[in-house]
Amino acid sequence: MDREKIGDVLRVARTGLNLTQSELSGLVGISRNYISDIENGRYTPSFETLIKVTNQLEIDLNTLTS
Q: Domain map of the chain by residue range?
């Protein structure tokens, strides 16, 4: 899956949980700007960061790799 699709999935999950980027960044321990960059396809997160984000958003990591 390309980084734009990953960002789209993460954004939909985040908004579905009524979380702001700032709230998610606080839960995960990364900056709000980095959350924005991931969601907008500017950066591909490390595997470690992706695990932290998907855990907070209750997303099965396997859905991002298919």
A: 3-64
Q: In sequence order, what DSSP letters do the residues of 20-55 get, joined into one string?
A: -HHHHHHHHTS-HHHHHHHHTTS-PPPHHHHHHHHH
Both structure tokens of 37? 């960059």
Q: pTM, whole model, 2 decimals?
A: 0.89
Polymer length in residues for the chain:
66
Q: Give the Å distances, CA to CA, from 14 to 1, 6, 26, 34, 59.
A: 18, 12, 13, 14, 10
Per-residue model confidence as pLDDT tens digits over 11-30: 999 999 999 999 999 999 99
Q: Alpha-carbon distance 21 to 2, whole Å?
A: 21
**Which class does domain 3-64 fall in?**
mainly alpha
